[in-house]
Backbone:
């Protein structure tokens, strides 16, 4: 009887030790499988998404946009000082007294926007290439091509649409249109890069729609959309993905 109890106790201890070892091994195996799946998912994401965008490029683009908006604002103030009606909206300055376009003012805005665009592109390309090389990623592959194509389709369409607005003299709607189409381009391209781009695009679209209602504040909304939002987005991206 005593031996039976002793044998039963030993058998229970053996079963407990065996089950504990099995459970530990099972947990270890599950952990390894989870780590493997996470690594596979990361590799698939790296192959299907362009993840080398630099947050600092967004910051610099925002700074360039604010500088361009400031130059446009002061130039408009000078133009207002020469007009007999100080209560006129800014877009009224694009029309001369004989109802013809003020080509000089229009060209100033064109050169101002072009300089902002070129500076932003140069800074963005330089910082993105540097970030890509730092992490050993390809800067030009099938994913980056798809990203660029999906970005350019709405941007090109928006650019043509803005030219049509200028052709019909609807200058007040140009600033809202640039924000809306830029936002659509970001949302469209977000499928091939970081999801944060989508939220920036949605904010740009919302600003563009608001600017189309308050058309007298086009430059103000433009400065927020291309300046302030880019700085906020770039800062978040930098601390979230780049700073280690």
Residues:
């Amino acid at each position: 009887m005593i031996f039976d109890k002793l044998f039963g106790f030993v058998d229970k201890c053996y079963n407990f030790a065996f089950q504990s070892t099995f459970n530990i091994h099972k947990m270890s195996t599950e952990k390894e499988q989870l780590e493997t799946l996470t690594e596979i998912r990361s590799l698939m994401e790296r192959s299907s998404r362009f993840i080398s965008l630099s947050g600092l490029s967004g910051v610099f683009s925002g700074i360039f946009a604010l500088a361009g908006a400031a130059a446009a604002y002061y130039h408009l103030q000078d133009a207002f000082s020469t007009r007999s009606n100080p209560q006129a909206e800014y877009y009224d300055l694009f029309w001369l007294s004989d109802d013809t376009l003020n080509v000089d003012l229009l060209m100033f805005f064109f050169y101002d926007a072009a300089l902002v665009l070129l500076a932003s592109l140069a800074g963005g390309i330089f910082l993105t290439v540097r970030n890509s090389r730092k992490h050993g990623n390809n800067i030009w592959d099938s994913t980056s091509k798809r990203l660029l194509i999906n970005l350019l389709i709405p941007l090109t369409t928006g650019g043509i649409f803005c030219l049509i607005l200028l052709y019909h003299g609807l200058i007040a709607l140009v600033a809202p249109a640039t924000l809306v189409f830029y936002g659509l381009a970001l949302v469209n391209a977000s499928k091939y890069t970081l999801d944060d781009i989508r939220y920036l695009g949605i904010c740009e679209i919302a600003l563009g729609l608001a600017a189309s209602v308050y058309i007298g504040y086009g430059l103000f909304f433009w400065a927020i959309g291309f300046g302030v939002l880019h700085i906020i987005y770039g800062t978040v991206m930098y601390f979230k993905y780049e700073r280690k």
